[in-house]
Write a structure and sequence with these properties.
four-stranded antiparallel beta sheet, 128 residues, mainly beta, seven-stranded mixed beta sheet, single chain
Length: 128
């Protein structure tokens, strides 16, 4: 059982930055990918970025260049650096872990049902 705890959310003005963290209880050999998702009110959960155990990274197109995912395996922590934030980035951000290899496929990584473990989420609010 992997427990994930997100932190770092908050309220910022457009153009600002935030760094989200996700502390994992373990990075078990079963964890193939770690990822960030977000969900705005009345919208579906969408993938933001993910990273697999080989270090390969995938981003949703609209977040490329503004968001950076990274991990510190020694400290079992996943990060999401978010720059140039826009009001459209306002959402609850979730950390997730997947044990299947399909999460490293560019065509499938955003499918939330591939991820077995989820954190409770951290709210990001961007105002104009």
């Amino acid at each position: 059982q992997v427990q994930l705890v997100e932190s770092g959310g908050g309220s910022v003005l457009a153009g600002g930055s935030l760094r989200l963290s996700c502390a994992a209880s373990e990075y078990s050999y079963n964890t193939y990918c770690m990822g960030w998702f977000r969900q705005a009110p009345e919208k579906e959960r969408e993938g933001v970025a993910n990273i697999d155990k080989n270090g390969s990274i995938r981003y949703a197109d609209s977040r490329k260049g503004r968001f950076t995912i990274s991990q510190d395996s020694a400290n079992k922590t996943l990060y999401l650096q978010m720059n140039s934030l826009k009001p459209g980035d306002t959402a609850m951000y979730y950390c997730a872990a997947s044990s299947g290899t399909l999460c490293s496929n560019s065509g499938y990584w955003t499918l939330h049902w591939l991820y077995t473990y989820w954190g409770q989420g951290t709210q990001v609010t961007v105002s104009s």
